[in-house]
Amino acid sequence: MEVVIVPDAKAGGELIAEAMAALIRRKPDALLGVATGSTPLPIYEALAAKVAAGAVDASTARICQLDEYVGLPQGHPESYRSVVLREVVEPLGLTPSSFMGPDGSAADVQAACEAYDQALAASGGVDLQLLGIGTDGHIGFNEPCSSLSSRTRIKTLTNQTRVDNARFFDNDIEQVPHHVITQGIGTILEARHLVLLATGEGKADAVAATVEGPLSALVPASALQLHRHATVVVDEAAASKLKLAEYFRATFAAKPEWQGL
Question: Do you know which NCBIfam families this protein is assigned to (predicted)?
């Protein structure tokens, strides 16, 4: 696993945005998997700035979703589809037709999960999938003890997750859905390049368990150890529990500049 330690979240966002821009330059119709939440915002801001400056033309790139709430009506401002359209698709100058995601309002949610898995495969596969990590090591909504071969499926949100997400719903937990659709770990691992960004001391234990701990369903993100091209970008605080931090710094510093992530 490639581990890159950066000074802060802004530097991590710039580094990953440049990797995404380089991918788009090589493959203009690249399929980029995106995540929601506050952690990836510096990535999207940096990439949008590159588009605005003419450093990359993302007009034919494609975007796909990692997860989605179940039961919110189409167009709800806090559906992850709406969030991705606001934070990624519109700033990059893309059209809604460039975007694909699971249908969280479907009458048959299980069928919607299977249809999304099939759509990802039919698209040619995800070229680069962005990931965040929970303090318990979860990726997407694959909580601890999720199957490492799981596919896109419906999951029940823990009460703590609903409490945490209530801030997006006027601090009213009753408005927060109980279920989500999430790409499974097996689905995530099919992307050609996985890039996980983690910032803050609160993520340090999860990062250490993911990178240096054993492969375990108890730490879903540790499945990245199985991937042929996985990059973990962390700030100094999130790297504070890594035993091999100095090795990771030296390894990345020695890489040829053209190689990138």
Answer: nagB, PRK00443.1-4
- Spatial contact of 171 and 207, defined as CB atoms under 8 Å apart: no
How much is the pTM? 0.95
The encoded tokens of residue 118 equal: 């099939």
Q: Which of 18, 67, 127, 235 is catalytic?
A: 67
Catalytic site residue 227? no
Report the percent of the chain where pLDDT is more than 90: 90
Q: Rounded to a whole number, what is the largest CA-CA distance in the chain?
A: 53
Give the distance, in angstroms, between the CA of residue 213 and the centroid of all CA atoms in the same chain: 21
Q: Which two tokens stand for residue 210?
A: 């993911």
- Identity of residue 252: F
Count CB atoms within 10 A of the CB of residue 49: 13
pLDDT in tens, 105-130: 999 999 999 999 999 999 999 999 99
**Is residue 258 scored above 80 in pLDDT?**
no
User: Would residue 8 show up in a list of annotated catalytic residues for this protein?
Assistant: no
* Whether residue 178 lies in the annotated active site: no
Quick one: CA dihedral 143, 72, 40, 35, positive or negative?
A: positive
